[in-house]
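Section 5: illustrative case.
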């Protein structure tokens, strides 16, 4: 089988070139052709000796991701479905803003964590993506967008690992892929513009800090273990106090001096003022004050199988007010691409569940989450 050169970071490509009897610096040339110029064909690499191009053709390829479909939202968001073989397909989303272009990348076909409020989680898990399949999403999108938008400069300035899958449960493929994204000979992203979002795989968060520190977003969603156990099943393995300690320990490695917490606002489940107060207390206890983290409130994006509803704008505002008054920087995420189901947690791709996770969630759905006591004013707002 031919080696897929998208699988290698620069170090890996240098080792590959050495095995072919080539000097390491050839790897840099090759790497730049692939990632900066978007070349998929060795013939195009005119400054490489013909003998090397011939050799490469015999043993290697640049295996592009196969696009199944593309959808464009009225707000400029674009979503691609990539066929990754074996009946699995994953989604990637480009989100244009005035000052940046963000690509939301998938790390797995499906996800084994099985969060109640996430469409990917409901699908179950098929397999980890390879490094080449992870970086291939960026390779494709950057190449496509330059042509589509008629630009020669870089279009994608930010990457968030917030597509399908739990990136830290695919660590060994994730790290080389991110090294390609960070490399100046690759995509040259700064560490602050590359974000890993995790549901809280504690040991891998520790390793990430040492191996490849990038911006970290942690999906919190609840102020207590009882509720988080229910929403994010991984909490039973890595409960809140461990998770928050690990976040604090990540800070010295973090490219920004804060950690972002994502908190998906679900009607009547985790959106009460009293829960915001509990959250403030929890964050204060763990991090010596309140300015070591930011809260990003995500309006829940509904999908039929979840049986859950999004919080009202007023309830989100009331929740945010408690956090802001406590000195915690808080933002409410704008939902993008909802006309093409490209918003957070709506990515479903097409996954063969090989684990039974999907079935287990489906059964759990019959057990309702214990409704929390309603705060009086918020209750009236509905
Ligand atoms: N597995 C990682 C990254 C992918 S999910 C993680 O969980 O962090 C990216 C973000 O979308 C997470 O914060 C996740 O909690 C959030 N999310 C999942 N389902 C959602 C939904 N239906 N509405 C809003 N946000 C959702
Ligand atoms: Fe997996 Fe993240 Fe979805 Fe949870 S929210 S099921 S960890 S993709």
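Designed sequence:
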């Amino acid at each position: 089988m031919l080696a897929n050169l998208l699988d290698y970071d620069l170090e890996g490509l240098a080792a590959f070139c050495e095995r072919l009897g080539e000097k390491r610096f050839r790897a840099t040339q090759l790497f730049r052709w692939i990632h900066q110029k978007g070349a998929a064909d060795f013939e195009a690499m005119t400054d490489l000796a013909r003998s090397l191009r011939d050799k490469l053709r015999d043993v290697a390829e640049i295996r592009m991701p196969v696009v199944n479909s593309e959808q464009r939202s009225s707000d400029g968001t674009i979503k691609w479905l990539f066929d990754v073989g074996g009946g699995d397909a994953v989604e990637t989303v480009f989100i244009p803003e005035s000052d940046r272009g963000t690509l939301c990348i998938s790390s797995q076909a499906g996800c084994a964590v099985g969060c109640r409020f996430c469409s990917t989680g409901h699908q179950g898990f098929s397999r980890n993506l390879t490094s080449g399949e992870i970086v291939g999403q960026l390779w494709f999108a950057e190449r496509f967008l330059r042509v589509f938008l008629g630009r020669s400069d870089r279009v994608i300035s930010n990457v968030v690992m917030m597509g399908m899958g739990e990136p830290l449960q695919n660590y060994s493929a994730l790290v080389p892929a991110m090294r390609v994204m960070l490399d100046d000979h690759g995509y040259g992203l700064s560490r602050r513009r590359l974000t890993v979002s995790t549901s809280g795989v504690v040991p891998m968060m520790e390793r990430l800090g040492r191996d490849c520190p990038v911006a970290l977003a942690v999906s919190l969603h609840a102020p207590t273990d009882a509720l988080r156990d229910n929403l994010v099943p991984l909490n039973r393995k890595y409960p809140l106090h461990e998770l928050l300690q690990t976040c604090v320990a990540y800070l010295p490695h973090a490219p920004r001096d804060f950690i972002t917490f994502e908190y998906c606002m679900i009607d009547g489940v985790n959106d009460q003022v009293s829960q915001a107060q509990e959250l403030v207390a929890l964050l204060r206890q763990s991090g010596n004050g309140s300015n070591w983290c930011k809260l990003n409130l995500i309006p829940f994006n509904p999908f039929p199988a979840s049986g859950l509803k999004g919080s009202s704008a007023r309830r989100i505002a009331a929740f945010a007010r408690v956090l802001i008054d406590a000195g915690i920087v808080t933002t409410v995420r704008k939902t993008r691409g909802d006309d093409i189901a490209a918003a957070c947690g709506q990515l479903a791709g097409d996954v063969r569940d090989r684990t039974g996770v999907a079935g287990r969630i489906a059964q759990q759905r019959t057990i309702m989450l214990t409704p929390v006591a309603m705060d009086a004013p918020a209750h009236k707002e509905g």
